[in-house]
């Protein structure tokens, strides 16, 4: 906690002068380009990994980067917090992109894979049920990359399942169909620091190096025309 407190002081004394003007503008409004959905894991730091600044990302974090699917009426089957963030991002902020980002060595995915009934965490256990489809697919269809540890294989499949859950929300589906919203699946490898993007053509997560980044950017630009 001391590190956290002293970090606030360091920011106030050294960094805040650089951002003072930007914070002044952000106090009036925010116009983030993307809703970034990722895990609560302390090792995943979106602004650091994507070199973003205040106002760039509208971020939603929870255990396992999970999105409870919606009913046909658009009402969440789980916690309303996630559904509310999705609605706010799409309807109010009008983000053009939603990224679902999983990661390696995810404790939530380890718990889902282990299926440990002795955890004695009923709320967590109920929450993790939103990853059960990913576990089913891993068992019956196999991994995207069999070189990974089983829980990391599950983590990658879980990203794709959560994107499918996003598409159960009518407002998301409508915006995607209209070409106004793009859904992307990313996966962060903690050990190497590499970020991967799911590429449908290869049915795999590919490292976001400069070459892939330029292809992704060109693809987004062509959709925006």
Tag the structure with descriptive keywords.
single chain; 225 residues; alpha/beta; Beta-carbonic Anhydrase, Chain A; 2 domains; six-stranded mixed beta sheet; 6 strands; 47% helix
Question: Mind explaining what this structure looks like?
Answer:
- This protein is an alpha/beta fold.
- The chain is 47% helix and 16% strand.
- It has helices at residues 2-26, 46-49, 80-92, 107-114, 122-127, 132-141, 150-166, 170-177, 210-224, and strands at 34-39, 57-62, 97-103, 182-189, 194-199, 204-207.
- The chain has a 6-stranded mixed beta sheet with strand order 2-1-3-4-5-6.
- A hairpin with a 4-residue loop joins strand 4 (182-189) and strand 5 (194-199).
- The longest helix has 25 residues, at 2-26.
- It is globular, with a radius of gyration of 18 Å.
- 28% of the residues are buried.
- The mean pLDDT is 95.
Using only C-alpha atoms, the radius of gyration works out to 18 Å
Just name the CATH architecture of the largest domain.
Answer: 3-Layer(aba) Sandwich
Number of domains: 2
Q: What is the fold-level CATH name, i.e. the topology of the largest domain?
A: Beta-carbonic Anhydrase, Chain A
Q: Main beta sheet, described?
A: 6 strands, mixed
- Show unreliable segments: none
DSSP helix fraction: 40-55%
Which CATH first-tier class of the largest domain would you pick?
Alpha Beta
Shape type: globular
CATH superfamily membership of the largest domain, which one? Answer: Carbonic anhydrase
Q: Care to count the β-strands? A: 6
